Amino acid sequence: MKYQIKFVDLTNLPPAERILSARELAFYQTLKLPKRRTEWLGGRFALKQLLLPQPGADVGRVEILPHEGGKPQVYVDNALYTGAFSITHSHGWAAAAISQECRFLGIDLEKVEHRINAWAEDFFHPQERQSMDDSFLTALWTKKEAVVKLLGTGLSLNSFDVRFVGDKISFYGEALQVYRSLGEPEIKLELSSRPQGFMLCVAWAR
Ligand SMILES: CC(C)(COP(=O)(O)OP(=O)(O)OC[C@H]1O[C@@H](n2cnc3c(N)ncnc32)[C@H](O)[C@@H]1OP(=O)(O)O)[C@@H](O)C(=O)NCCC(=O)NCCS
Known about the structure:
The protein is of the alpha+beta class. It has 2 domains: 101 residues, CATH 3.90.470.20; 105 residues, CATH 3.90.470.20. It is built from 5 helices and 11 strands; from the N terminus they run βααββββββααββαββ. Coenzyme A binds next to helix 2, strand 5 and helix 4.
C-alpha cells in the first residue's frame, strides 16, 4: 500500500485530554479560535491513530508538535519520526496520511464550492485556469496544496511557482530550488471525491 489515510469527523472528537500529551495540551491551550482548536486536535487524532501500534494504546506516546518551518514534527516514544506524513482539515473533517514506501507525502482536503474569480486569479497562473468550473478549481487547489506540503514549504512559496497545466506539474523560482534540493523525485497525484462533497488530493514520491 502506497499510503494509509485516516479521516476524522470533527463533530465527534474525544476530549483534548484523551488525545494530547502534556506538551501538546500546553500548545493547544494557546490556540484562541475554537475552529482552529478543533481542527488542530482532529488532525492529531487522525495521525495518532495511524501511528499507534494498537487501538487503545497510550496516545501520549505520539506527539505532533508545531515547528518553525510550518510542518509539525512528530515524535514516537520521544524519538523523532522520520517517515512521511501529512495532515489536512476542512469544513468539519480532518485527515492524516502516512506512508512507509514513500519519502515524501502531502495531502489536502477541500470542500467543493463556488469561490470568487479573484481568488482563482490570485492563486492560479493564467496557464492553469483552463476552466473556471468549481470542481476543476477545487481540484487544482488541492493538487497545489498537496504538493507544497510534500515539498515541506506550504504556501510560503509563490503559488504560481508550482504550476499544473494538463497532467504536467512544473516548478519555477524558489519552488524549483526546493524541488531540486529534494533530488527531483517523481511526484504522483491521486484525486478522490471523499468525503462526499469534498475533494482530496494525495501527492507522494518515492
Ligand atoms: C500548508 C498550507 C498550504 C496549509 O493549508 P491550509 O489549507 O490552510 O490547511 P490544511 O488544513 O490543508 O493543512 C494544514 C496542515 O498542514 C500542515 N502544514 C503546515 N505547514 C506545512 C508545511 N510547510 N509543509 C507541510 N505541511 C504543513 C500542518 O500539519 C497543518 O495542520 P496543523 O497546523 O493542524 O498541524 C499553508 O502553507 C498555507 O499557506 N495555507 C494558505 C491557504 C490558501 O490561502 N490557499 C490558497 C489556494 S492555492
